[in-house]
Amino acid sequence: MIELIPAIDIIEGKCVRLTQGDYATKKVYNEDPLEVAKMFEDHGIQRLHVVDLDGARQGHIVNYRVLEKLANRTALVIDFGGGLKKEEDLHIAFESGAKMITGGSIAVKNPEMFTSWIERFGNERIILGADAKEGKIAVSGWEESTELELIPFIEGYHQKGINKVICTDIGRDGMLQGAAVELYKEILAAVPVYLIASGGVSSIDDIAALEEAGIPAVIFGKAIYEGRIKLKDLIRFIKN
Asked: Is 131 part of the annotated catalytic residue set?
């Protein structure tokens, strides 16, 4: 059974979505992320992916008060990312209620520090964020491209202990054009990680296709907020 992980992206304390990581495309869906999180929880969802988009831009955790509220007032298991650059940011995230953190840019720009986080906090609490554009890793809220190849990048961190990986195909993110199923199958064929697919999910059929392909988990956001996926339709995928 595929694990369902809805996303809440935060700018200025509000629930928003971007298209392909472009801040100019910001659309506010709800002034209160807690209201959104409770709606997910009421429909049997157990996990939540929270991204501090202000933090991603500013290079340090910003919206930790929102995280605190979500963690204290729901039972959702939250992974949190965006702008986590120092160990102090991790302590704030964990103290604010995150069960896991996602590191993307830091894993590229300061691999020594990211590796030390895996060793210190354990691979159950540290998720590798591998965001890709045309097969190459992108960082800093997708505003910077690199020459790092996606699969060798994941492979390298798997050898250092990483087990959970969120992979976003940037070209599909927010486009509602379907998930990159073949890319995810290729990753799993190369590296035995708990792969969380992200980007492009537009319908229940996309989630079904990922499940059929053996992808362990999926993050989705815009399709829910735009009404293309109804929460009641997710019931068949929800673990008891």
From this structure: yes
